Amino acid sequence: MQLRADARRGLWRRVLAWLGLSATARRADAQAADCEAGAKGEQWTAGLLRPLEVQGWTVLHDRAIPGARRANADHVLVSPGGRVFLVDSKLWSGRYPVHGAGGTLWHGEAGRPQADRSGAIRSVLYEAGLVERALGVPVQPVIAVHNASVDGGGFLVQDVPVVPASRLLEVLRGNDGPRAVGAAWLVQLAVQRLPEYR
Predict the structure, then answer these.
(1) What are the DSSP calls for the chain, one per residue?
(2) pLDDT tens sequence across 27-79
(3) CATH at residue 64
(4) Domain membership flag for residue 100
(5) CA-CA distance, 162 to 177, in Å (whole number)?
(6) Does 157 reside within a domain?
(7) Per the structure, how many domains does the chain have?
(8) Could you list the residue range(s) of the whole structural domain that residue 49 is in?
(9) What pTM does this model have?
């Protein structure tokens, strides 16, 4: 990956990285690992969403978001009922559970050091707001978690459903409404205003 290569450009940087003495290389490796895990999670979610397409849902993967410099939408879905969902895929360690407490998203066990994953909530709310502005309709963000167990089979943090990936289709279908005539128009708008991310 380019991040790793850039951190090792030049002989001295390669030597320091090889010796484990380069903080820049360690940061680049961690960032690259996060990107790789994110891509794998997105692929798994894309596979899970395929049955919805047969049922009349439109699923757009890896879309650019107008107004966002670096953020992209993992999966934008337009339901047959004309509802729009933004699904953010997370591939987190299965060693620790995911739970919400006090408006915060946590990854870890109570009584032990836990990772505050609230950045994921802020990001998906920000992205959903921009997609909402681009399409002119409400957008419901959803976080789908792979690997890690999710407390209670799913919960809300700041009105964002956090669900195990295994329950994603159930949650999406359960939040759709009756078929809407305007759904086809909304699909065309989404394709036009949310181009593929490059």
Answers:
(1) -HHHHHHT-SHHHHHHHHHT--HHHHHHHHHHHHHHHHHHHHHHHHHHHHHHHHTT-EEEEEEE-TT-SS-EEEEEEE-TTS-EEEEEEEEE-TTS-EEEETTEEEES-TTS--EE-HHHHHHHHHHHHHHHHHHTS-EEEEEEEEES-BGGG-EEETTEEEEEGGGHHHHHHHT--S--TTHHHHHHHHHHHSPBP-
(2) 544 454 444 444 565 788 999 999 999 999 999 999 999 998 888 999 999 99
(3) 3.40.1350
(4) yes
(5) 20
(6) yes
(7) 1
(8) 42-193
(9) 0.79
Which of 56, 78, 53, 192 lies closest to 137 in space, CA to CA?
Answer: 78
Residue 31 domain flag: no
In this structure, are residues 106 and 120 in contact, taking their beta carbons and an 8 Å threshold?
no
What is the C-alpha R_g of the chain?
19
Q: How far apart are CA 79 and CA 56, in angstroms?
A: 7
Query: Is 18 a domain residue?
Result: no
Q: Kindly give the pairing relationship between strand 84-92 and strand 160-164.
A: unpaired
SS3 (DSSP) at 162: strand
